[in-house]
Write a structure and sequence with these properties.
This protein has 459 residues and is an alpha/beta fold. The chain has 16 helices and 16 strands. α8 links the parallel β6 and β7.
């Protein structure tokens, strides 16, 4: 007579069989939700300067895990955002300008966003630059050069992430539309809509979204980049508002989500050496971080990481032998260098009055007034400014006056090789302390989920 196998043994055998049969991803552990915040151009000084001005500690600077990583890429000690973003997104280094493929464009690198999708999670990309710009592109596209923004937009459609928000409308509309940068008649906004996306183009439309478990969103809130935070137009959502809207969509998935949020224009501010734009865009990035922290209070199975892709401008607190920064200079600032430069180009007017309106300064020195008038004449004569991030010479002089008066210094108009600080909170944050390479965050995030990041040949 055969003896019956106890039920408990059968259960164990069945469990082992299922474990062998199911893919590893089915048992992925780690945090259900991940917020990946990237301040473009953001490192230690960019994170400290707003604290001097605001008189409070940034939320991102209170997280328990603190690390720092190098930023060099394969072909340069000083990286660009494409190579840096590729490292942060995929755990692989590549050359400047290259988006999540090897330098020859032959091997594609799976990104942490794609790995999240592979695990059944929902995914979102949010930025204040064009959604097709380098940093968001490194999470959702694979292409040999960052300049191919039309093709990046097309890859997003195929990729099928649940949320895309930022600027960049000109890369989605057909060439027949004014301002389009496309070279064909494809209307990607219509194609996204046909694929089930709600396409929104202003703050009101974003606020009125009806969200359910099937909602997907393409938010395009500007032809190119969105405005700097304190120049924000009434119909533009803030970074924190976009983040909150993205969370409402992504949290519908019971398996969780991955959301990359970029404060992209901090980089542009630092390229222009404008401390006003840099400080207040970093403050708004911190407001977006607060959205994540508030969500984490509702769902503790949430990991938040805040870093940068590289440092820009060589920003420093203190000039020469003067140790004392003067944060009060920014307390009445109303606009950035970009607003001032573009406003003068469009309408002219008294450049000193415009400068006063933007800066909140009403006691310019004779030397400053002379520099302002000279800059205005240079604008009228169409003289080329220092770099592409200053619309004109008046914008440059504004940034220079605000820097000198506040005793904030700069070593460059470009990126630097300075390491970047990173802070984390949530399950597994203890794995992100220390000093390491910029390829590590993606690898460590993947390890929290118990997966590896794949590669494949580009066809």
């Amino acid at each position: 007579m055969r003896r019956k196998i106890p039920a408990i043994i059968l259960l164990v055998i069945l469990s082992m069989a299922i474990a062998i049969w199911l893919p590893v991803e089915s048992f992925a552990a780690g945090p259900k939700n991940v917020f990946y915040f990237i301040g473009d151009g953001l490192s230690t000084t960019q994170r400290r300067a707003p604290e001097e001005v605001l008189g409070k500690t940034l939320l991102m600077n209170t997280f328990p895990a603190v690390g720092m990583y190098t930023t060099y890429c394969l072909d340069s000690t000083i990286t660009d955002s494409a190579a840096a973003g590729t490292a942060l997104a995929s755990g692989h280094k590549t050359n400047s300008g290259v988006i999540s493929v090897d330098p020859k464009g032959k091997i594609a690198y799976e990104t942490i966003a794609e790995a999240a999708k592979r695990l059944g999670k929902s995914v979102g990309l949010v930025t204040t630059t064009s959604i097709t710009d380098a940093t968001p592109a490194t999470f959702g596209a694979h292409i040999i050069t960052r300049t191919m923004q039309n093709e990046i937009a097309e890859q997003y459609l195929v990729q099928g992430f649940e949320v895309y928000m930022g600027g960049g409308l000109r890369h989605f509309v057909p060439k027949s539309e004014k301002g389009s940068k496309r070279k064909d008649d494809r209307d990607l906004t219509r194609e996204f809509a046909d694929a089930g996306y709600s396409v929104v183009k202003n703050k009101g439309q974003l606020n009125n979204l009806e969200i359910d478990k099937t909602t997907k969103v393409l938010g395009l809130f500007g032809a190119s980049n969105m405005s700097f935070h304190i120049d924000r137009k009434a119909d533009e959502p803030t970074l924190s508002e976009m983040t909150a809207a993205a969370v409402k969509v992504l949290k519908q998935n019971p398996k969780g989500f991955f959301l990359m949020v970029e404060g992209g224009r901090v980089d542009h501010a630092c390229h222009a050496n404008d401390p006003v734009a840099a400080i207040f865009d970093t403050e708004e990035l911190d407001a977006a971080v607060k959205v994540a922290v508030d969500f984490q209070k509702e769902d503790a199975d949430t990991f938040i990481i805040v870093g940068g892709d590289h440092e820009t401008g060589g920003m420093g607190l203190g000039i020469g032998l003067d140790y004392f920064v003067k944060p009060e200079i920014f307390h009445h600032a109303r606009k950035t260098h970009e607003w001032l430069g573009m406003t003068f180009e469009k309408g002219g007017g008294d450049p000193v009055a415009l400068m006063s309106n933007a800066s909140g300064i009403d006691d310019f020195t004779p030397e400053e007034i002379q520099a302002i008038h000279m800059a205005a004449e240079n604008v009228k004569a169409n003289k080329k400014t220092v770099n592409m991030y200053n619309p004109n010479w008046l914008a440059f002089v504004y940034a220079d006056i605000m820097s000198r008066r506040s005793h904030i210094g700069w070593t460059s108009f470009a990126h630097t090789a300075s390491p970047v600080i990173v802070t984390c909170v949530g399950p597994g944050n203890e794995k992100f302390g220390g000093y390491y390479d910029n390829t590590e965050p993606a690898k460590r995030l993947a390890s929290l989920w118990g997966v590896g990041l794949k590669t494949w040949e580009v066809k």
